[in-house]
Amino acid sequence: MKNPDPSSLIRMFGKLALLLLLTPRLFAEPVQLPYSLLPGTSYVGIPLLRPALFSGKITKTDSATFRVQVNSFPPIDFATVPGWGTSPCFLEISASPSDASLEGERYEVDPVRTLKEKGFVVLKSASSNTRNDLPSALAGATFSIHPHWTLVTVFGDAATTKLGKGRTAPLSDEIKIYSPDEKSGYRSFFVQLGDSKTQGGWRSALPSQNSDQSNTVIPPGYGLILLRKTGGVFTFAIKGEPRTHAFRFPLRAGSNLLAPGHLKNFSLQKLAAS
Q1: Which residues span the domain enclosing 133?
Q2: How far apart are the first and last CA of the chain?
Q3: What are the beta bridge partners of residue 149?
C-alpha cells in the first residue's frame, strides 16, 4: 500500500482544524415574514437577518487597525467564502463570555481590506456601528457576518416591486429610511418608471442624485416610512433568520426611528428596560 503524500495529510488536517475551530451558526432557521400595508403612511421595521456569510470566534482584537482575528487554522481566506464581496455586510456579536454586555454589538465590515488580510475581519467606522471602540474583552466572542438588507432585497427591483412607480418622487410611492447623518433625519427613495431614453429603477428623491439606488443599505434597527400614494394594500414578504441573541438599538442624539431586531411585540416599558 502506498503511503499518503505528507502534504496532502497536512492539508486534510488543516481543513479539519478549520471546521473544528469555527463556531457553528447560532441563528434559527429562516422564516418568511409577510407585510400588509394600507394606503397612506406606514412605519416599517425589518427584524430578520439575511443568511450569514460566515460565523466564527474572535481570537483577539486589534484596535490600532480596527480589525479582529478569527480563530481558525489555517487562517481563513475570505475569498473562499461564497457570496463574499457581493453586498455590504456587518459583523454582529452573538455571545461574549468575557463581557456579556458586549452581546449584540455590531460593526460594518470592510470586505475589500478583509480579502487582503487572511485570518482577520477588517472593520470600518460607520454611523450604523453600535460603538466606536473595539474592546479587548471581545476575545473569545462568537460572531456572524451578514449581508445588509437593501432596497432591492426588501422591496424588489423595478420589474418585480408592487410599489407605485412614476417619473418623479411626488408621483410615486416613497420609502424614507431613517438617517441620523441627514439634516431632515431621512433619505427618500422611489421606483422610477423608465422610458425610451432612461432605464427605470430605484432613485433618490433628490433630483441631483439620478444614479441607481437599488443597493442602498437599510441598517439593522433603522426604521422605514412608507408613503403609499397609490390605491390598494401593499403586500410583500421577506425571508430571513430570526435572532437568538440580544439586539442592540442604534440610538443617536435627537429623534430616532427605531425598528426592533426580534420577531415579537414590544411595549414602551419593555423597550425602556432593555
Answers
A1: 54-147
A2: 64
A3: 218
